[in-house]
Each structure stands twice: as C-alpha cells, then as structure tokens.
Amino acid sequence: MKTKLLTSAILLAVTSTAAHAVSINMRHEWTPEFEGNDQVHKDRIAVSHRFANGVGFEVEAKYKSGDGFFDFDQFVDAGNQANISYKMKLGNGFDLTPQYKIENDSSSHNHQLNLTLGYKINDDWSTSFRHRYNYKLKNGEYDSHYNRWTVGLGYKGIEDWSLSGSTDYTFKEEGDESWKGNKNGFTEINFKAEYKWGNGWSPFAEFGVTPEKKEGSSEKDTWKPRYRVGMKYSF
Where in the sequence is the signal peptide annotated (predicted)? Predict the structure, then answer.
C-alpha cells in the first residue's frame, strides 16, 4: 500500500511540475533455455525524471512469464521499485549521485543504498563507478545482504548512437555464492547500444551474461546469456 501511494505521488509530481522532462522506458528481456533451466521472458516499464536542481526519481513495474514460456496469459507480477537520488556536479567532469531504492516482490523487500561517481572524459567518452549496499528482507526466511561494485564505460562518438558496457563484482555474505562456490565474484557483464531516433524516441538493445549452474552442478560455474530490447521516450 505504501509503495502504491509513493508511486502515485511521484507520478502526480511528474505530470504537474515537470512537463516536457519525463522519460518512459519500456523493455523486454529474454533468457533462453540454458543448462536444463526453462526460458524466461520479462517485461518492465519505468518512469523517471531529474529536476534542474539535481533531484531525480524513478518508479518501475515488472512482469515475467509464470511458467518459463512466452505465453501472455501466464505473465505474473515480478515486483516494483521506486528510487530517489541527487546528482551533484563536482567540477572538472566529475559528478556524484547518492540514491536510495526500495524494491518489492511477492517474497521479499529490498532496501538499496547506491553511490555513483561519474566522470566525463571528453565529449565522446564517459565512465562511472558505483558502490551498492543491498539489504533483503525475505518473507519467512533469514535476511541477507550484499555489497556490489559496478564499473561502466560509455561512448557517444558516432552520430545518433550511444554505446556502453558495464560489469558487476558482488561481495556476498558467508554461505551465499557469487561464482564457483566463492562468495565474491563477477555477477554480470552487460553491453548496450542505443539509437536516437528523433522526436524523443530512442530504441535500444542489450546483451549480457550472468553466472549459472550447469545441469547437475552444485555451484555456479558457467555464464548464461540474456537479451534485451526496448524503447525510451522522453518528453
């Protein structure tokens, strides 16, 4: 209920005070059948805005296929999230963005604290480093937490195109696995290409990999592919 009220309040603020400055991001994700695991389709829609004073926020709703197959009548709610952040210009191409995010689904509640340092190298290149702390409250189970570092690199030197890549390195608590039985390790590698179509429309595509267990394996020792396509509209 609290999340619904927060979402409604943010959307009202967007439509009433930030006209012509809103971004809507619609994305479809497909994870193919892999090592005995069913394929999965996921969809999400996010609405975001950042004011001239540096304050920004985003709300997001997510869905996925309930039985692992692309069947619209089997899609189920996969949770929602809302975040608020503040982007500070530090000078000499640097900026710093603290963010608080809350994410909920049917089985857990996540509280995230993110701190991102961005650096604009020149008009074409930029890079970033983010530290994330995530605390998960699971219904009827023990709570858990992790820390994660994300390094990103972006390039805009091709007319109307932007290319980017990022990688995550996760530090999990004792007993949880990131890679090959270790609690620390790389947990995602992702590449993205976006095209500025005009009139506020920007289609994009992503390819990424995440750790997965081979069929019959007791630990995550291989990389599972993931594909995403989407459309961003800004007005």
Answer: 1-21
